[in-house]
């Protein structure tokens, strides 16, 4: 007997495949993570993230101009300060590197693309943790919330349309929402890193921002355990209740089940962060000639959309947006 079901009919030509494709991927589905460093005289390539740079404010403007040209939907900014302290005060200093850069980008580009700021302390603390420490070296959740409020105000004031708390403190979204509203920033959007896992895939990022956690420490006391799936739903629901406008799953490829769960259960916009280690793995294998880098990147970013994300934060934003425009 010959098969009566013949799905291959619909795969015969590329026009047919395009017509019946269930998932689309376009440049405006991308948010590019960008690093701006204090005290640099020119942009410096990050060894473990080929093609990504620690920018000066000047080189950052040029990069964003190019991202706008290829139609990328947004950028998320990370500051790399030249000095750090116990509290991470550079994170809310109006003259801090991220705030200076945000103001410049706001002036240059207005609302041409969505301007986001990562909201955390780890790049700014001498000990490398995402919050303030108690005497015993553990992170003090509630004392940290007050500082996150200050960072949110500094970022909103400098022109961020979206603040993205990534520290995984309990109650961070509610604390930031209250601080913003009390200061009249009721239009500032909160993108919550809701389900952020303690992952081995953040290594290149920590190089990029010069973060080393004291005494070989880790973030397992606040980021999620990768053995847990249901817990992500609890985190994300909590964030939505506290006022998150958008929620994120991070990393991406090892957490597509989580992304799919959140898509089923929540009706807020959803995104995923294709993180530094995911980018670096593709780049490294491609450099060896072992895989076709752009093809794998396209496959992975499409898979993130297929699993339920509305958009994706990715270091591939510029490269793949350029590819899609061809
Ligand atoms: C914390 C933060 C991290 C990343 C984004 N925000 C690092 C961490 O949690 O250690 C990682 C992003 C990446 O790996 O691309 N502020």
List keywords for this structure.
326 residues; alpha/beta; TIM Barrel; eight-stranded parallel barrel; 16% strand; globular; binds ligand PBG
Descriptive notes:
The protein has 326 residues and is of the alpha/beta class. It has one domain: Aldolase class I (TIM Barrel, Alpha-Beta Barrel). The protein is 39% helix and 16% strand. The protein has helices at residues 14-20, 57-69, 97-109, 141-158, 172-182, 203-209, 230-241, 256-265, 276-287, 293-306, 317-325, and strands at 30-37, 44-45, 53-55, 74-80, 114-119, 162-165, 189-196, 246-250, 270-274, 311-314. The structure holds ligand PBG.
Widest β-sheet, arrangement of strands? 1-4-5-6-7-8-9-10
Largest sheet data: 8 strands, parallel, barrel
Mean pLDDT: 96
Distinct small-molecule ligands in the complex: ligand PBG
The CATH topology turns out to be: TIM Barrel
Q: Nearest-angstrom radius of gyration?
A: 20 Å
Percent strand: 15-25%
Element-level helix/strand string: HEEEHEHEHEHEHHEHEHHEH
Highest CATH level, the class? Alpha Beta
Percent of residues in helices comes to 25-40%
Number of domains: 1
Q: Globular, elongated, flat, extended or rod-shaped: what is the shape?
A: globular
Query: How many helices does DSSP assign?
Result: 11
- Give me the CATH superfamily: Aldolase class I
Which second-level CATH architecture applies?
A: Alpha-Beta Barrel
Low-confidence blocks of residues: none
Helix/strand class: alpha/beta
Terminal CA distance:
44 Å
Total beta strand runs: 10
């Amino acid at each position: 007997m010959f098969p009566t079901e013949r799905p291959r009919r619909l795969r015969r030509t590329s026009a047919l495949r395009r017509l019946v494709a269930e998932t689309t991927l376009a440049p405006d589905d991308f948010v590019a993570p960008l690093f701006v460093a204090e005290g640099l005289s020119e942009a410096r390539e990050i060894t473990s993230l080929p093609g990504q740079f620690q920018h000066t404010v000047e080189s950052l403007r040029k990069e964003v101009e190019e991202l706008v040209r290829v139609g990328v939907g947004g950028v998320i900014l990370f500051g790399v300060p030249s000095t750090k302290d116990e509290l991470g005060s550079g994170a809310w200093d109006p003259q801090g590197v991220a705030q200076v850069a945000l103001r410049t980008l706001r002036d240059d580009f207005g609302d041409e693309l969505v301007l986001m700021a990562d909201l955390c302390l780890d790049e700014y603390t001498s000990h490398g943790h995402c919050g303030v420490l108690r005497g015993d070296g553990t992170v003090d959740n509630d004392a940290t919330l007050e500082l996150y409020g200050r960072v949110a105000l500094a970022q909103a004031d400098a022109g961020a349309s979206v603040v993205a708390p990534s520290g995984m403190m309990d109650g961070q979204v509610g604390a930031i929402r209250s601080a913003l509203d009390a200061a009249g920033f009721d239009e500032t959007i909160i993108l919550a890193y809701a389900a952020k896992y303690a992952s081995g895939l953040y290594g290149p990022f920590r190089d990029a921002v010069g973060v080393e956690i004291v005494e070989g420490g880790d973030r397992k006391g606040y980021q999620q355990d990768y053995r847990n799936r249901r817990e992500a739903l609890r985190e994300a629901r909590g964030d939505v209740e506290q006022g998150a406008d958008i929620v994120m799953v991070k990393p991406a490829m090892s957490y597509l089940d989580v992304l799919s769960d959140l898509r089923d259960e929540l009706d807020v916009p959803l995104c995923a962060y294709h993180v530094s280690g995911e980018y670096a793995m593709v780049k490294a294998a491609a450099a060896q000639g072992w895989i076709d880098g752009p093809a794998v990147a396209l496959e992975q970013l499409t898979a993130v959309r297929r699993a339920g994300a509305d958009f994706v934060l990715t270091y591939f934003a510029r490269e793949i947006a350029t590819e899609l425009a061809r």
